[in-house]
Amino acid sequence: MRLFIIGFRRAAAAATGVGVYMLPGQQQQQTTRLVTRMIASSAATYIQSSTTCSIAQSAVTFAQGVKMLDARKTFTEDFFFRQLFDEQSHTYSYLLADITSKEAILIDPVLEQAKRDAQLIKELGFTLKYALNTHMHADHITGTGYLKQLVPGTVSVISQSSGAKADKKLVDNETVQFGRHVLRAMSTPGHTNGCMTFVVEEQGVAFTGDTLLIRGCGRTDFQEGDSRTLYRSVHERIFTLPENFRLFPAHDYKGNMETTVAEEKRYNPRLTKDVDAFVELMSNLNLPYPKMIDKAVPANRECGLYDIPKEA
User: Is 12 helix (H, G, I), strand (E, B) or coil?
Assistant: First the structure.
């Protein structure tokens, strides 16, 4: 944005002869007026032709958009991040690691991708310390149990409130450490009682599971789902994170890979409503019965230790 404005100032100077014929005070006033007009004009061009807001409103929207894109943190040099995908369930898994110590964690692994994930971890020379689940999934079987066999020493992790078995159970604001990096488990129930958002403050990222999706949210019509609880979790926990935090969900069905707090606060069509309107919307979605729920929930209650492929 700074380069954008500098370029306009230079163009304004050339157009008005600033610095040659005008006194300093006049130069500043003339340049300011011209730059303002040029920014507003370019902002209007930037906004799609169907937009009906005024040029002044367009300039504000343009500036907000630039701010949302430019303000994100850069990962530290010793932080490794890899986003992985399972096409069948549209699940994202996330491999994080300390590059110096080689300690790694894997968030929301999928059973069918456990071999892929174990191979990647081996190739990168990492030691898998924790396999974490944001909640007890209903749309796929977690890969945690299989990974414990493929990568001996892996510790399975899930919320204390999930009702699932695991080596380590987390409560609100408890942390896990990998190398020098720290992940904080933030309780965000509503989709299920045990939903957690995993936050790595230093890197400006949060992994929201099914609580908050990109321009959407998790269902509240099965397991322990509750729309008002989910709404509070998002508004009081996730939306109170810094606006430049990058958010990574457990699923996406449209090819989106990430979002930010700022984007979802402005554009999420469900969670920008008031709580009563949100509850009404969620109660009238009329979604089909989850295809995998009858198989996935019993398996995930054992944290994936059930129905592991025979070749394991």
Answer: helix
Give the Å distances, CA to CA, from 52 to 5, 39, 40, 266.
25, 18, 15, 18
165/238 Cα distance (integer angstroms)? 26
CA–CA gap between residue 232 and residue 91 (Å, rounded): 24
C-alpha 142/C-alpha 109 separation (Å) is: 6
| pLDDT for res 58 | 43
| One-letter identity of residue 103 | E
pLDDT at 124: 98
Grouped pLDDT means (10 residues each) for the chain, 312 residues: 45 42 47 47 42 47 53 92 97 98 98 97 98 96 95 97 96 98 98 98 98 98 95 98 98 97 98 98 94 93 75 53
**Cα–Cα distance between 239 and 260 in angstroms, integer?**
10
The type of residue at 115 is: K
197 neighbors 134 (Cβ within 8 angstroms)? yes
- pTM score of the predicted model: 0.79
Q: 207: Cβ–Cβ under 8 A, 6 or more apart, which residues? A: 94, 107, 108, 134, 197, 198, 199, 247, 248, 249, 250
Q: What angle do CA 281, 93, 251 make, to 5 degrees?
A: 20
Predicted local confidence at residue 72, as pLDDT = 82
Number of alpha carbons in the 13 Å side-chain half-sphere of residue 40:
11
Helix (H), strand (E) counts: the chain: 9, 14
Question: What six digits make up the tokens of 170?
Answer: 């987390």
Longest dimension (CA), the chain: 85
Cβ atoms of residues 190 and 230 within 8 Å: yes
Collapsed DSSP state (helix, strand, coil) of residue 104: strand
pLDDT given at position 303: 82
